[in-house]
Amino acid sequence: MIKEKGILFVLSGPSGVGKGTVRKALFEQDTDLRYSISMTTRAPREGEKDGVDYFFKTRNEFEKLISEGELIEYAEYANNYYGTPKAYVQQTLEEGKDVFLEIEVNGALQVRENFPEGVFVFLIPPSLEELKDRIVNRGTETEEKIKARLEAARDEIDMMDNYDYVIVNDNVDHAVSKVQSVVLSEHCKRSRVAKQYKQALEEDLT
């Protein structure tokens, strides 16, 4: 019998591109993906809940987890830490279930080092002007912070070459459909299926 290990899917992209919106829409549909909630030291935005959108931690709590090696990635972005708990991801993959991460670009590059077999999806805006509109419409940023986020976004978009897939977020439903296509495609990949099939054959022969 083929024993299939779970696949780690990482959705990333510049701040304000709509990663959270796409992730929420994806998980509102019927999916076998398991969402790994990130940790952050930033304050909750309106409507966000601890343990649902993020695990909200103090700076001291977060730095303790870093020192104990309990995160597969972490990054400091706009004076706040963001990170992913290690134990949940490893255990879920071993159980044969897919794990879905939605994280910032710097964090995604660290995950790539720790889990090179993961699948990395880069979400981009139709244009930088559209990205600016989305950040402004949040109503949570000063003019100075908006400018800093846009400059950071330009740098992050330059990191696109580190990803396996690129999806333009011009429409949330279209973006979700493309993410679902990526998941299906990866499970049908010859290299992945062949490896699992050969292992199963060897076990049957012995």
TrEMBL record:
<dbReference type="InterPro" id="IPR008144">
    <property type="entry name" value="Guanylate_kin-like_dom"/>
</dbReference>
<dbReference type="GO" id="GO:0005524">
    <property type="term" value="F:ATP binding"/>
</dbReference>
<keyword id="KW-0963">Cytoplasm</keyword>
<keyword id="KW-0547">Nucleotide-binding</keyword>
<keyword id="KW-0067">ATP-binding</keyword>
<dbReference type="InterPro" id="IPR017665">
    <property type="entry name" value="Guanylate_kinase"/>
</dbReference>
<dbReference type="GO" id="GO:0005829">
    <property type="term" value="C:cytosol"/>
</dbReference>
<dbReference type="Pfam" id="PF00625">
    <property type="entry name" value="Guanylate_kin"/>
</dbReference>
<dbReference type="InterPro" id="IPR008145">
    <property type="entry name" value="GK/Ca_channel_bsu"/>
</dbReference>
<dbReference type="GO" id="GO:0004385">
    <property type="term" value="F:GMP kinase activity"/>
</dbReference>
<keyword id="KW-0418">Kinase</keyword>
<feature type="binding site">
    <location>
        <begin position="13"/>
        <end position="20"/>
    </location>
    <ligand>
        <name>ATP</name>
    </ligand>
</feature>
<protein>
    <recommendedName>
        <fullName>Guanylate kinase</fullName>
        <ecNumber>2.7.4.8</ecNumber>
    </recommendedName>
</protein>
<comment type="function">
    <text>Essential for recycling GMP and indirectly, cGMP.</text>
</comment>
<dbReference type="InterPro" id="IPR020590">
    <property type="entry name" value="Guanylate_kinase_CS"/>
</dbReference>
<comment type="similarity">
    <text>Belongs to the guanylate kinase family.</text>
</comment>
<feature type="domain" description="Guanylate kinase-like">
    <location>
        <begin position="6"/>
        <end position="184"/>
    </location>
</feature>
<dbReference type="InterPro" id="IPR027417">
    <property type="entry name" value="P-loop_NTPase"/>
</dbReference>
<keyword id="KW-0808">Transferase</keyword>
